[in-house]
Design goal:
By secondary structure, the chain is an alpha/beta fold. It folds into two domains: 110 residues, ATPase, nucleotide binding domain (Nucleotidyltransferase, domain 5, 2-Layer Sandwich), CATH 3.30.420; 160 residues, Nucleotidyltransferase, domain 5 (2-Layer Sandwich). It is 42% helix and 22% strand. The strands form three sheets. It has a five-stranded mixed sheet. It has a five-stranded mixed sheet with strand order 11-10-9-12-13, sandwiched between helices. Strands 5-6-7 form a three-stranded antiparallel sheet. Strand 10 and strand 11 form a beta hairpin. The longest helix has 25 residues. The radius of gyration is 20 Å and the shape is globular. The chain starts with a strand and ends with a helix. 44% of the residues are buried. The C terminus is likely disordered. Belongs to the ROK (NagC/XylR) family. This is ROK family protein. InterPro entries: ATPase_NBD, ROK. It comes from Microbacterium protaetiae. Pfam families: ROK (PF00480).
């Protein structure tokens, strides 16, 4: 049995996964603040799964998906500002308390692995495009996460696609994230609402000109990310997840229309069939937690093989 956790800014999603890859238990709980709070959340999540019926002695590893920077192969989490963490070795802080190996991966990279697994082992190359507060992506090829030399493969959010677009938090103008990140849209919309992006789309449907301009930028930014991922990595499919994926057809119809429009004048772009290579992650899918469990299983296996053959 492997446990996977998706530690988010407000809540943590935890799953238990058996040897066949089936999710046998799932719990959700609030995420604590700061290093101590996050460490306690990880421990509490495992305890909650045990309380829900997962056999403690059957847990072989714990994998954790975290926002922020995680250097490939390490358990150091850096710059997870939404959790109040500057630098934390999460495995060193939790493994002694849990009694099993703990592995850590960036949450979007973990979600990419989980999304690939949820496709049923279809094989080939898949990009997971996370549309949430920000925009980022992870790439999986034949079940293996491709991180690149420095762990930044797939980070499309800060690629500038519109030199006249809005200023991004990174300092550039017209980044994908400045056009289609949830926080950027909320900031540009500027009207109080529990769900600013949904509020903006509703206003766009009522012909509000400001909202219509923001909606157009949203579709332009997402479609640009899709083109970048296909043209640079030639992925078979781009799976869209994250908080904005909850917009469903209101998002996907606009993105596909933008991809079709941009390919109208290019035979080469039409030959790529981009609208048919975009999919939406099913609502409620525990992709990041499942992917974290797979990361934990893989690293535990690698460690065991090193001990056996070292």
């Amino acid at each position: 049995m492997r446990v996977g956790l998706d530690v988010g800014g407000t809540k943590t999603d935890a799953v238990a996964v058996d040897a066949a890859g089936t999710i046998t238990g799932r719990v959700r709980l609030a995420t604590g603040w700061g290093p101590d709070g996050v460490v306690q959340t990880v421990v509490d999540a495992v305890e909650a799964l045990v309380a829900a019926g997962v056999e403690r002695g059957g847990i072989q590893s714990v994998g954790v998906g975290m926002p922020g920077q995680v250097h490939p192969g390490s358990s150091h989490v850096l710059h997870a500002v939404n959790l109040g963490i500057a630098d934390l070795d999460l495995a060193a802080a939790t493994a002694p308390r849990l009694g099993v190996p703990v592995s850590v991966e960036n949450d979007v990279k973990a979600a990419a692995l989980g999304a690939d697994a949820l496709r049923g082992g279809a094989g080939g190359t898949m990009a997971f495009l996370n549309l949430g507060t920000g925009v980022a992506a992870g790439i999986v090829s034949d079940g293996t996460l491709w991180t690149g030399a420095h762990g930044t493969a797939g980070e499309v959010g800060h690629i500038a696609v519109d030199p006249h677009g809005p200023i991004c938090t990174c300092g550039q103008r017209g980044c994908v994230e400045a056009l289609s990140g949830g926080a950027a849209i909320a900031r540009r919309w500027g009207r109080p609402a529990p769900l600013p992006v949904l509020d903006m789309l509703d206003a766009a449907d009522r012909a509000d000109p400001h909202a219509q301009a923001l909606r157009a930028d949203l579709m332009i930014g997402v479609s640009a990310a899709v083109r970048i991922l296909v043209l640079t990595a030639d992925v078979d499919v781009v799976v869209i997840g994250g908080g904005l994926s909850g917009l469903g057809d209101r998002l996907m119809d606009g993105v596909r229309a933008e991809l079709e429009a941009s390919a109208a004048a290019s035979e080469f772009m039409r030959s790529l069939h981009l609208p048919g290579r975009v999919q939406l992650l099913p609502a409620g899918s525990p992709a990041a937690a499942l992917g974290a469990a797979l990361v934990g299983a893989a690293r535990e296996r690698d460690t065991r093989e090193t001990v056996f053959h070292g």
